[in-house]
């Protein structure tokens, strides 16, 4: 079965065991294709995430004339075209479900001398794009959106960009990255200032490709007109994918799992901080640095979790992990309160509403608020939940079954392939009683 028909059936109980490597980091995989394509020389990538989102980025650069070899198993070889070497694609670039592809590509395409149209699937077509088109237009780009500021984005080529000093209105790595990538094509200096720290993979990787980004606190600056030099990239496992297993092992009695080679960049490690504050037993082992990114093995054992008020400073550092954290909260003692997280409403789905609906369907008291949620811990019951095609919702509810009283059925799960192909098989091999049809 395929498409929106994919359903997960997860039987209650079990525990997670073993030592596993989860899927490659999505954010780093996207950026490896983007910078590798714009670099001079040949870039080799290992551990590339073979998910639909990153493949959409790869196909977009292929459509703009970049020669990319890819034989599966996470190995990619990119013949860089140079910053000025992209070619006009034959048609619109379809970025599927991937917000990262669309927002970062908008910055790159704004600097080209040809027109490009960026499109996406039903979910992406509803997501806000003015957050990138406004700063790009202030730099001199010309971009048309649909009414409401949503995709498709029609980007007119041949407009000279001027560097700008952009103060971001929201904590968004996609917006920051978009502006910095456009800045490579702009005259003079481009700077971003963010209201709170967000993932800094773009800044790190630009420096790794020899394009100097000056960073001081919340500010990152680069000069236009530089060049990127090909590099070798080893992509770590994605902490966002590891998060499902961290939560699963924490809530399932007798679990003891080690997640190998996980990226623990301090702009991404909020899930560890939050779960530990809830009482989780998480050990970070063998910390090391790989290609400019901190990496470690993470051992998680079952623990009694308590509800907490999640510190707002952790929100951007765990922005993709809240569906999983809500499942931890649903199995904790007491109440968990999240505030300051209105960004969750404009992800692949409205993650506050969709999670509240799903938790309620399992008998958990979950009260959505405009910028967060209030969850009263307990034991999830049996039930059917709708993922609304959101990969992270599907995988989070799958883990909830480890502590549930009955079977959990999750609908519309095909998009798990956007970030974690092989999730069902890997989770089953660790002890989750999951099957799909
Ligand atoms: C991402 C940034 C985050 C995150 C997304 C990936 C990135 O979005 O939710 O999954 O790779 O830059 P925002 O920066 O919009 O919060």
Verbal overview:
The protein has 13 helices and 23 strands. It is of the alpha+beta class and 437 residues long. The protein has two domains: 3-24 and 237-436, Enolpyruvate transferase domain (UDP-n-acetylglucosamine1-carboxyvinyl-transferase, Chain); 26-234, UDP-n-acetylglucosamine1-carboxyvinyl-transferase, Chain. The strands form six sheets. It has a four-stranded mixed sheet. Strand 10, helix 5 and strand 11 (189-193) form a beta-alpha-beta unit. It starts with 7 loop residues before the first strand and ends with a strand. The mean pLDDT is 97. Bound molecules: shikimate-3-phosphate. Shikimate-3-phosphate binds next to helix 5.
Question: Could you tell me the mean pLDDT?
Answer: 97
Q: What name does the CATH topology of the largest domain carry?
A: UDP-n-acetylglucosamine1-carboxyvinyl-transferase, Chain
Enumerate the distinct ligands. Answer: shikimate-3-phosphate
Strand element count: 23
Topology:
Blueprint lengths: L7 E3 L6 E4 L5 H13 L3 E5 L5 H12 L3 E4 L5 E4 L13 E2 L4 H11 L6 E4 L10 H10 L2 E5 L3 E7 L8 E3 L5 H11 L5 E5 L7 H8 L5 E3 L2 E5 L8 E3 L4 H13 L4 E8 L6 H8 L3 E10 L2 E9 L20 H9 L4 E4 L12 H11 L3 E5 L2 E5 L6 E4 L4 H10 L7 E4 L4 H4 L3 H8 L3 E3 L1
Parallel strand pairs: 2-15, 3-14, 6-7, 10-11, 21-22
Antiparallel strand pairs: 1-22, 1-23, 3-5, 4-5, 7-9, 8-9, 11-13, 12-13, 15-17, 16-17, 18-20, 19-20
Helix pairs in contact: 1-2, 1-6, 3-5, 4-5, 7-9, 7-11, 9-10, 9-11
Bound molecules: shikimate-3-phosphate (S3P).
């Amino acid at each position: 079965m395929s498409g929106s028909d994919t359903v997960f059936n997860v039987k209650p109980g079990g525990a997670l065991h073993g030592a596993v490597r989860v899927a490659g980091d999505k954010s780093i995989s996207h950026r490896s294709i983007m910078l590798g394509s714009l670099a001079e020389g040949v870039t080799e990538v290992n551990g590339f995430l073979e998910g639909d989102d990153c493949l959409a980025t790869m196909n977009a650069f292929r459509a703009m004339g970049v020669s990319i070899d890819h034989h599966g198993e996470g190995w990619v070889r990119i013949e860089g075209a140079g910053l000025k070497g992209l070619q006009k694609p034959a048609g619109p670039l379809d970025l599927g479900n991937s917000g990262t592809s669309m927002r970062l590509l908008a910055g790159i395409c704004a600097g080209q001398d040809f027109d490009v149209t960026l499109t996406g699937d039903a979910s992406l077509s509803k997501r806000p794009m003015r957050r990138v088109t406004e700063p790009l237009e202030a730099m001199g780009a010309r971009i048309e959106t649909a009414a409401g500021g949503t995709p498709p984005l029609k980007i007119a080529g041949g407009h000279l960009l001027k560097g700008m000093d952009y103060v971001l209105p929201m904590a968004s790595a996609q917006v920051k990255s978009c502006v910095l990538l456009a800045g490579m094509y702009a005259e003079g200096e481009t700077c971003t200032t963010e209201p709170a720290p967000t993932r800094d993979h773009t800044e790190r990787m630009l420096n790794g490709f020899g394009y100097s980004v000056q960073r001081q606190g919340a500010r990152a600056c680069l000069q236009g007109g530089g060049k990127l030099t090909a590099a070798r990239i080893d992509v770590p496992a994605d902490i966002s994918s590891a998060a499902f297993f961290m939560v699963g092992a924490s809530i399932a009695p007798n679990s003891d799992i080690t997640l190998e080679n996980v990226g623990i960049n301090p702009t991404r490690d909020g899930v560890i901080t939050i779960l530990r504050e809830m009482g989780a037993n998480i050990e970070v082992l063998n910390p090391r640095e790989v290609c400019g990114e901190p990496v470690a093995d993470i051992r998680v054992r079952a623990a009694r979790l308590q509800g907490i008020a999640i510190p707002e400073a952790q929100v951007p550092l765990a922005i993709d992990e809240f569906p999983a954290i809500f499942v931890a909260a649903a199995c904790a003692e007491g109440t968990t309160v999240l505030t300051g997280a209105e960004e969750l409403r404009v992800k692949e789905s409205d993650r506050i509403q969709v999670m509240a609906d799903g938790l309620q369907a399992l008998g958990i008291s979950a009260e959505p608020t405009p910028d967060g949620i209030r969850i009263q811990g307990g034991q999830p019951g049996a039930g059917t939940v709708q993922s609304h095609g959101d990969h992270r919702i599907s995988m989070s509810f799958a883990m909830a079954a480890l502590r549930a009283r009955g079977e959990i059925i999750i609908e519309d799960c095909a998009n798990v392939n956007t970030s974690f192909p092989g999730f069902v098989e890997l989770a089953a091999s660790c002890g989750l009683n999951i099957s799909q049809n």
